[in-house]
Amino acid sequence: KNSNYKIECFISFLSAGSSDVFRVVGGSVQLEIKGSVSEFDDFTWIFSGTVNVLKYSKRYKDVTHSPDYEHRVEFNEETCSLILKNLQKTDSGLYKIEVSNALQTTTLYTYILSVLDPVEPPVLNVYSSTDPCNSTLTCRGHDLSITSTCYKETCEEKEVTSPGGVALFLSVRDSVIICNYSNPASWKQDKITFTHLCPDTGTHTLTHTHTHTCTHTVIASMLICSSFYWRHKASLEVLCIFFSCLEIKPLKDIQL
């Protein structure tokens, strides 16, 4: 009979829900029960299989804390969720909620908590070459490093990872270079905005110069035509020649 009870408990543990949770040192985490708790009378949050973080009796509305967690836990009597505060690396491990009533004792849910140091800010540098259109980027985060090249605002995006879910990623978004360093619990970025482009010697400069040249030619032609007009008022034909040069038709009723 005792062996059957152990088997039932083991099967219940395997069928219980489970989640991996990552938090930073000094942060907090909320451990919730997934599902209904109305049919149970007693609740115990257990750490590492042996440490009773908190016990709650629904019948007597009694909450008992472990001395090690006295000032670091909050308990919701309606949902039976647990909040752990001021997390330390020693809080990493397996947490489970064990519930019971007159008929059974079972594990409803388990959490595997990992408490990690926050990542350090990464360092992003841009190095220009003799060619102003080409540049080199370096993105560094602790023991990870990325080197990439850019032509104008087009850069090669790269990512490197290390065991434990630590990642370094270099990307460009909307003219902003982003160096992102992260672990499963935190991330930090360093950014640089493009402040200049390659010198533009293309159509804009040429078009601008060409426009000024055309404008100067028209003004000079108008001055010549005006001068010629006042010297030769009687010669409408000659004046028309100058107007046709400017592709402007004289008025039919012009009076000379």
UniProtKB/TrEMBL annotation:
It holds the Pfam family V-set. InterPro entries: CD2/SLAM_rcpt, Ig-like_dom_sf, Ig-like_fold, Ig_sub, Ig_V-set. The keyword Transcription regulation does not apply. Signal peptide: none annotated. GO terms for cellular component: membrane. It comes from the Eukaryota. It is found in: Membrane. Keywords: Glycoprotein, Membrane, Signal. Residues 18-111 form the Immunoglobulin domain. This is Immunoglobulin domain-containing protein. It comes from Astyanax mexicanus. The lineage of its organism: Eukaryota, Metazoa, Chordata, Craniata, Vertebrata.
